[in-house]
């Protein structure tokens, strides 16, 4: 019977190179998780995602509860079987949508009531219901239900929001059903305020979680301030548990955060950018829609080898400009490979 464990194998400065063992396999860290919002990494087959080196993907509680519904996914054998992904799956709690859907929701101590952006139907999401949905999905790593503090927020606003999230974290822990190899992560909040972040970590440790995420960053504060928050926070983060920076980010964000001691990341950027014609390369980002690539016979990036490497920039330019589905597939494939290559190099110490 596999237990959920984190093992630190090597440390280079603050950078941690380790392994997370789960019921659905091992995750080498630092790790980047492609985002599979609605039980699919957009424009990619699960096998294609795995071929890039990705070992874990992320699913979205909010979107899956609306469509097709957590109960239906459970009836069909759980999220792993439903989407044919055998590795670990982390699901977010729905807390980010609490912030991003501010015009459609009402929040109180009990939880959040909101209108579906699809149908207008009213739903309620509480810590207990979030844990139930993630359990029905069969998530390997469940996230505690929280309120993602928006930016900017005053100290008083950030404190009030953080303390609500800590009360919800306690309710999430009580509602979570422990199983060998599965985990529940708490989420550190507190905006950009070092004292609130420290208080949040201490509150979460008192409750006790299998891993600790950092929420409420990459919401508009900019890289410099994000790194300052991490510099202040990381000395207080538990050393023997995985650390997950949510929703981050650009390639240099990842490198900077790994070198500050973060183990796990997710972001829609490589997939969304790929679908919009942007490629991340060793020479920087490029927009394949640009007319200068119309007759460019070179590949996107000689240092990033994926299925996209079989095609010229000129062909990819044609596909994207024509709105061909293959363009989204190949550009996404390249970007995910680029991100996984960054993680691999960081794990190798370069």
Describe this structure in words.
There is one protein chain. The mean pLDDT is 96. This protein has helices at 46-51, 61-66, 70-75, 79-83, 95-100, 127-137, 155-175, 194-207, 223-233, 251-258, 269-275, 313-321, 325-347, and strands at 5-12, 15-22, 25-29, 31-33, 57-60, 89-92, 105-107, 112-115, 122-125, 141-143, 183-188, 211-214, 243-245, 264-266, 278-281, 284-287. The two termini are 35 Å apart. The protein contains 13 helices and 16 strands. The chain has two domains: 5-267, Alpha-Beta Barrel (TIM Barrel); 275-333, no CATH class. Helix 6 (127-137) packs across helix 7 (155-175), helix 10 (251-258) runs parallel beside helix 13 (325-347) and helix 11 runs antiparallel to helix 13 (325-347). The chain is 38% helix and 20% strand. An eight-stranded parallel beta sheet has the order 4-14-13-12-11-10-6-5. The chain has 350 residues and is an alpha/beta fold.
Task: Give the SSE layout.
Blueprint: E1 5-12, E2 15-22, E3 25-29, E4 31-33, H1 46-51, E5 57-60, H2 61-66, H3 70-75, H4 79-83, E6 89-92, H5 95-100, E7 105-107, E8 112-115, E9 122-125, H6 127-137, E10 141-143, H7 155-175, E11 183-188, H8 194-207, E12 211-214, H9 223-233, E13 243-245, H10 251-258, E14 264-266, H11 269-275, E15 278-281, E16 284-287, H12 313-321, H13 325-347
Parallel strand pairs: 4-14, 5-6, 6-10, 10-11, 11-12, 12-13, 13-14
Antiparallel strand pairs: 1-2, 2-3, 7-8, 8-9, 15-16
């Amino acid at each position: 019977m596999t237990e959920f464990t984190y093992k630190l194998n090597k440390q280079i400065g603050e950078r941690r190179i380790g392994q997370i063992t789960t019921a659905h396999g091992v995750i080498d860290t630092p790790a980047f998780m492609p985002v599979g919002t609605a039980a699919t990494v957009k424009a990619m087959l699960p096998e294609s995602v795995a071929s890039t080196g990705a070992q874990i993907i992320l699913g979205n509680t909010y979107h899956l509860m609306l469509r097709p519904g957590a109960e239906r996914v459970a009836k069909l054998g759980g999220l792993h079987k439903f989407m044919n992904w055998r590795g670990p799956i982390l699901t977010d709690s729905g807390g980010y949508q609490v912030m991003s859907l501010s015009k459609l929701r009402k929040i109180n101590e009990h939880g959040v009531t909101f209108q579906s952006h699809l149908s207008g139907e009213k739903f309620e999401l509480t810590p207990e219901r979030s844990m139930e949905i993630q359990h029905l999905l069969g998530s390997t790593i469940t996230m505690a239900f929280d309120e993602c503090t928006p930016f900017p927020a005053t100290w008083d606003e950030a404190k009030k929001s953080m303390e609500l999230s800590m009360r919800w974290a306690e309710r999430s822990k009580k509602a979570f059903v422990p199983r060998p190899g599965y985990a529940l992560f708490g989420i550190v909040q507190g905006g950009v305020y070092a004292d609130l972040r420290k208080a949040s970590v201490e509150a979460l440790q008192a409750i006790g979680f299998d891993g600790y995420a950092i929420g409420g960053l990459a919401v508009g504060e900019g890289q410099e301030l994000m790194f300052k928050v991490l510099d202040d926070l990381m000395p207080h983060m538990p050393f023997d548990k995985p650390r997950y920076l949510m929703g981050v980010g650009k390639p240099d964000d990842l490198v900077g955060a790994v070198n500050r001691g973060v183990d796990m990341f997710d972001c829609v950027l490589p997939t969304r950018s790929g679908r919009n014609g942007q490629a991340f390369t060793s020479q920087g980002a490029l927009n394949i829609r640009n007319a200068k690539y119309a007759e460019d016979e070179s590949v996107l990036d000689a240092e990033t080898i994926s299925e996209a490497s079989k095609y010229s920039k000129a062909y990819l330019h044609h596909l994207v400009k024509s709105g061909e589905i293959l363009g989204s597939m190949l550009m996404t494939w390249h970007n995910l490979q680029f991100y996984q290559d960054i993680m691999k190099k960081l794990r190798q110490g370069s």
